[in-house]
Design a protein that fits this description.
The termini are far apart. Strands 10-11-12-15-16-17-18-19 form an eight-stranded parallel β-barrel. It is built from 18 helices and 27 strands.
Length: about 800
């Protein structure tokens, strides 16, 4: 453990002027900053937030506008209730700073803060009440020196909060000291050495000439970083970890995807939910996702995973959650209204009863509640356009700066290739009115897409374009293009694509011209131009998906008429503890456009239709991990809770690998991805109106088609642009015969119909049972007739042979 020789306080930007103290006794010197106090642009010391190793020690800096005193506590043993040393910090503008010589890598530390609602009193000791006036005052201050706070800019923490040793909550728990219970921030410096292949990858990313990874080339795969390999049947040596995920890179490469979109990887509370959307840090990777949980090694393990994925030609996109944090209330129990007839069912009437005085203090809330969070007009509670509370002030100086710093650090240090932004409209909320949308030149959403560091690395930027409230609650198509780089802009999860295709496949009466918002069949197949083109964006900014983590898996979408979110294997807390805040019978979307097809061969045929539709549609396809082998959540469409982190939610590798039907589905998905990659000229144009020209045709090979029907021919007719292709879409429930363009031969690449995936066909043809016979790429079937009959509810892809 480090020996603390001296402590000197200074502004981070004045460190070069410091000299050591004269002896081993602790002496504190205050040095006037060279730079002026911070202005509204957030300059100077904001560049030095967090722990910075300088010369023979570490400078600690943290932001707070309203604190009246902040101390840094240094722990030789992070499990002790008292620190080894603690020092007051000096304020320069709104940044508090202290330089401690003799402190370096591996140092555990935390902050305590006082402010207007709890002023410093010399009589105060941990666990006492001296100086207290309110848990939250009229200005929204929630300072409490009994709560040890982690550093928002720390790159590592040593573990989760230990609730058995102390509560983070204010209110009745205001005097419960968390100095021993709290997670400690840790000073870390990565020693990871990137290999030559990684340097080549980075050069390609930066150049913009990265074969297979152009802006229109991406095929995304959303997946949980832990659940992907947590099951022992995953076959990795380090299951359920970043390292285990990296070990599975060859599987992803074999499938053909070009980028993984990882659910949140940042530090979350112990009860932060399985999905991880309750972050306590925007820098530190979640320690429980690391195989080696020494906090000094977690960042390096994440880097190893990234390098393995890059070595297999796979980009790494991280789901980031800046719109709210995991600093909840107690989030423990709920009161049941009917105390006579207790009925823990969806009809039961529960409500959360945490009063305004009760709130968990992990970091931001205890450092400066009103600076980091969007507060209600009374300053006592939180704005909630997130649906989960704790809405941040994304366009206020400290939060805005922290988001940019977080993104840059992940790109430059961790080599992350892109980001998906949870509830992204909140990032565009006006700071003066959290209900109002502000995407002006100084807004965070514009700064992100214009940021020179992110642009320099050709970082992918993707929005979840909806929130739970505010005028921006539905913001499809509202995100901006870059003002400095042509072709660069916000991508968006294309929810109307999802809803239109679900309805088209599952509903018998949904015609090609039936609209889902602005979307109809032609709109969805050609990159949803109405959402993106007027904003100066491109087809690839439409992220087309059918299923993602938030909702049914694809198999369940075709197996359940309604969600199954009560007591069950994916929500066991509703079985054991129905008053828990995590038991929510009403959670999850009700209007799923799902259908129970009953027959398993029919379900698989509809799944192939969905996969084929995504691959032939202009835009960027996004697959939900596990859909490629019929993964189920047993009808649960909101499997987010902490107790859902179980074997039923983890990827069941042993189940699919032992099953012929699941192997055939995997093989089909692999094949149809290859079809897209081989025909990017048609299916992935880089501009609206670009790429291979095509025409819409009827089944009779005439123009225009009958848009009031459920069948359509799409003809990519210009052989000079690439292979000539036909896409035959037939969602009629019976067969439709298509007249093929004459004067050339045709061969079949894909036919999604159920017959080729039935036991009867496999037995009759003597076909291999683990290979999909719905896709034929190496030996396409030549067609001898001028017509092709597409079976009911099928999609066919044909290629011209001469």
């Amino acid at each position: 453990m480090p020996r603390f020789l001296i402590a000197c306080v200074a502004a981070a930007f004045a460190l070069s002027a410091l000299s050591g103290c004269e002896d081993e006794w602790i002496r504190i010197y205050y040095t006037e900053p060279i730079a002026p106090s911070l202005d509204e642009a957030g300059i100077a010391a904001l560049d030095h937030l967090g722990p910075k190793l300088v010369d023979r020690g570490t400078n600690f800096s943290v932001y707070s506008e309203h604190a009246t005193r902040i101390e840094v506590l240094l722990f030789d043993d992070p499990e002790e209730h008292r620190p080894t040393r603690q020092f007051p910090m000096e304020r320069f503008g709104d940044v508090w700073s202290v330089y401690v010589e003799g402190v370096g890598v591996g140092q555990h530390y935390g902050y305590v803060a006082w402010g207007p609602n709890w002023e410093y009193d010399e009589r105060w000791r941990p666990g006492t009440i001296h100086g207290f006036s309110a848990d939250v005052d009229s200005q929204g201050n929630r300072f409490n020196p009994n709560k040890l706070l982690t550093d928002p800019y720390a790159k590592a923490v040593h573990r989760d909060h230990d609730w058995s040793r102390g509560s983070t909550a204010s209110g009745p728990g205001r005097t419960s000291s968390t100095w021993g219970a709290s997670a400690k921030s840790v000073v870390v410096v990565s020693t990871y050495e990137w290999g030559e292949t990684e340097y080549a990858w980075r050069e390609a990313r930066r150049s913009g000439d990265h074969p297979g990874h152009g802006p229109a080339d991406a095929i995304l795969y959303e997946v949980h970083p832990k659940g992907f390999t947590a099951n022992s049947s995953s076959g990795v040596d380090h299951p359920g970890s970043f390292r285990g995920f990296g070990e599975k890179a060859a599987y992803l490469a074999d499938l053909g995807i070009t980028a993984v979109e990882l659910l949140p990887i940042h530090e979350k509370p112990l009860d932060g939910g399985y999905w991880g959307y309750n972050n306590l840090s925007f820098f530190a990777p979640e320690v429980s996702y690391a195989w080696d949980r020494d906090p000094r090694d977690v960042v390096d393990e994440f880097k190893w995973m990234v390098e393995q994925l890059h070595a297999h030609d796979i980009e790494v996109i991280v789901d980031v959650v800046y719109n709210h944090t995991g600093e909840g209330g107690l989030w423990r129990e709920r009161i049941f209204q009917n105390d006579v007839n207790f009925d823990p069912t969806p009809a039961g009437d529960f409500y959360n009863f945490d009063p305004k005085e009760v709130a968990g203090l992990y970091n931001l809330r205890g450092l400066d509640n009103s600076a980091y969070y969007a507060l209600s007009p009374d300053n006592q509670t939180y704005w909630n356009n997130t649906g989960v509370g704790n809405q941040t002030r994304c366009n206020h100086r400290p939060m805005k700066r922290m988001v940019i710093d977080s993104l840059r650090w992940m790109v430059e240090e961790l080599h992350v290739d892109g980001f998906r932004f949870d509830l992204a409209p909140v990032l565009g909320a006006s700071d003066s009115d959290p209900d109002a949308w502000d995407a002006g030149p100084d807004s965070l959403v514009q700064e992100i897409v214009d940021d020179p560091v992110l642009a320099d690395w050709n970082t992918r930027i993707i929005a979840e374009p909806w929130a739970a409230g505010g005028e921006y609650s539905w913001s499809m198509g509202r995100f901006p293009a870059s003002t400095v780089d042509d072709g660069r802009g916000w991508g968006e999860w294309n929810a109307n694509y999802r809803d239109w295709w679900r309805s088209f496949v599952n509903y018998d009466d949904h015609a090609l011209n039936t609209r889902e918002g602005d979307a109809d069949g032609g709109f969805t197949l050609t990159g949803s131009a109405g959402y993106f083109e007027d904003e100066g964006r491109r087809p690839y900014h439409a992220t087309n998906f059918i299923t993602v983590h938030d909702g049914f898996t694809m198999y369940d979408l075709l197996s359940y008429e309604n969600k199954q979110n009560g007591c069950g294997p994916l929500n066991p807390v509703c079985c054991s503890d129905p008053t828990s805040a995590w038991c929510d019978f009403d959670s999850g979307e009700d209007h799923n456009r799902s259908r129970d097809w009953g027959d398993e061969a029919d379900k698989r045929a509809m799944m192939r239709n969905f996969f084929a539709a995504m691959m032939v549609s202009h835009g960027t396809p996004l697959l939900l991990g596990g859909d490629e082998w019929l993964r189920t959540q047993h009808g649960n469409n909101n499997a987010y809770s902490t107790l859902a982190d179980n074997e039923h939610n983890h990827f069941q590798w042993g189940t699919w690998q032992a099953n012929d039907e699941r192997n055939r589905m995997f093989d089909f998905v692999r094949g149809v991805i290859r079809v897209r990659k081989d025909n990017l000229h048609a299916f992935a144009p880089e501009t609206y109106g670009g790429g291979a020209p095509f025409s819409w045709k009827s089944a009779n090979n005439t123009e225009p088609p009958d848009w009031g029907s459920r069948h359509l021919m799409q003809h990519y007719y210009d052989a000079s642009a690439g292979p000539e292709l036909l896409v035959l879409i037939n969602m009629e429930r019976g067969p439709v015969t298509f007249t093929l363009p004459g004067g050339r031969g045709w061969e079949r690449l894909v036919d999604t119909q159920r017959w080729f995936d039935t036991d009867e066909y496999l037995a009759e043809a003597g076909a291999e049972r683990r290979t999909s016979h719905n896709v034929s790429l190496d030996e396409p079937l030549p067609l001898s007739e001028p017509e092709y009959t597409a079976a009911g509810s099928s999609i066919v892809i044909l290629r011209a042979t001469d």
